[in-house]
Amino acid sequence: MKKKETLKFQSEVKRLLDILVYSLYKNREIFLRELISNAVDALNKVQFELLTDKKIEDRERELRIDIKTDKEKNMLIVEDTGIGMTRKELIDNLGTIAHSGTMDFLKKVQRKKKVEDLDLIGKFGVGFYSVFMVAKEVRILTKSFRKGSSAYLWVSQGGEEYTIEKSEKDKRGTRIEIILKEDAKEFLEEYRIENIINKHSKFVPFPIYINGKELKRKPPIWTQPKNQLKEKDYFEFYKYLTNYEEKPLTYLHISADAPYQFHALIYVPDISTDFMELFTKEPGVDLYSKKVLIRKHSKDIIPEYLNFLKGVVDSEDLPLNISRESIQDDLIVQKIKKHIVKKILEHLKNIKEKDFELYVKIWKKFGRKFKEGIISDFDNRDLLSELLLFESLKSGEGKFIDLNKYKESFEKDQTEIYYISGESYKSIEKNPSLEIFKEKGIDVLFLTDPVDEFVLEHLKVFKSFPFKAVESSDIKIGEEKREEDRELKDFIDFLKNLYGDRVADVRVSRRLTKSACTLVNPENSPSVQMERIMKIMNKDYEMSKKIFEINPNNILIKKMISLYKKDKDSDKLKNIALHLLENQMIREGLISDLNNYLERSEKIMLETL
Ligand code: ADP
Ligand code: MG
Predict the structure, then answer these.
(1) Domains, the chain, ranges and CATH?
(2) pLDDT band at 55, cuts 50/70/90?
(3) In contact, 287 and 316? CB cutoff 8 Å
(4) Which of 67, 322, 346, 380 is 20 to 30 A from 472, alpha carbon to alpha carbon?
(5) Of 16, 48, 87, 93, which is best to mutate to test ligand 1, by the most ligand atoms within 8 angstroms of its C-beta?
(6) How far is the CA of 416 from the centre of ligand 1 (A)?
(7) Bridge partners of 506?
């Protein structure tokens, strides 16, 4: 028989232990939640294995969790009849951090070093190691469910190392003995333990015994009829499921019988956008078949863009022996998925119509996800487009409208949905291309998120009305082309000559009412915003040429024309005309070398003086 071995913890584990032990995290009772949650995982796994694998130790053994106290030895014991661990599993699972969530936690704490971040411990549930907040020593006696496995004893005081040796245990499962610290004796009191379980582990799907006495259990909430459940029940289950203290923004309970039976309980969490990235990495919905957990964080039952949702789906119609690999190909899973997604999107649409304020909150957190859906989920594109919100010319900064509202505001004869993109509301608002829209009272969507244009390009139309950038040259509003007089025509030719191939064309504007000039996009060419993104992705990308539009009613243009009449070769006029173009190009970020511009500026200044 092998002797006792001493092994070192991975350095990340050591760091985590330091944080846990020295931070004096006030809510250390969560260690019990973590141990019970691991026991549940181990039991879920054995339950799943029992469905398929015949070669299992102690087949008939009850699936249960036992919590025992021994006041004399100052010891708390948490025991389960789950899958247990082999020697290698002990080393891999408890000597290193495999869990990406825990690694993320470490990085976050490292980066911010703020004490409040320790609340993340609660949310993440940093798992097994939290036991060292209350333990002087931890002894794990475990035996794997695989036939013929040996038992092992793992011991650690939470410092730098742990020991492993072969041991004796007659039945499958894991027994964790915790020698409590002097200041943690409260965890030997039955009422305290019961209280913690009620608070954090109420919905555990296996019986829990405290010193041999079975605790009352709650049946899985999703299988109960809706009319027997209160909001409070839903919130409690949510807390159990996620460890989040904040209430969910909304939830949806779906039960269907035909053509396939399933229950689904889905929540929209209220996570702060700061931590979004950390908390939406893994899908948040678990898949059950006949109350047996088939897969935690299932990738198969909810599309990726809805990863932020939390909840469970349980179907009687899934074959129990379905292998983890074949879930995604299962026809019933696909149908249930389709059904659920549709219901969720409809639910969100409903909120938008009935409680707009709440919807705006949801939108601010997850609007990006809905946009992602428009690109990836073709089947639900129409429904998703109903969920889009925008700021607009008429809505004002920070206020939102949806596309229906935009449509309702159509001016007579309007047949297009206009949009304009830019960095921020304020910067867009000043764009001269909006002048004609302001004058005619036509609303324009303001796109400030760089992905917005891709999204609208994907949609192309909303309820058969096409999206159109206000800068595109063929918008269907503005005055009919006025008769161009001779002088104006000559002046435009003069500009065309002067600008050469720096612009695609020069012409009289239909969209300007105040400003002197603006640059617009030739039909079918990408917008400036879009081109900027392309330029970032590919340095050699050639920006397409713009059309230069002038407004003959503007005083500056008027004066230029009269100067042109007097002296067709005026250097002063040429300099001003070049400046006129370059001002616009600079505004759009189309000129990087400003030397000529600045030199000319000085000339013009000198002349003015
Ligand atoms: P997580 O549960 O998020 O994976 P933990 O730190 O809580 O992280 O646990 C680490 C790993 O240790 C688990 O994934 C599991 O493989 C193993 N483990 C912990 N407790 C038990 C147990 N009671 N039975 C079997 N395996 C366990
Ligand atoms: Mg765990």
Answers:
(1) 4-214 (3.30.565.10), 221-385 (3.30.230.80), 389-470 (3.40.50.11260), 486-521+537-609 (1.20.120.790)
(2) confident
(3) no
(4) 380
(5) 93
(6) 57
(7) 548
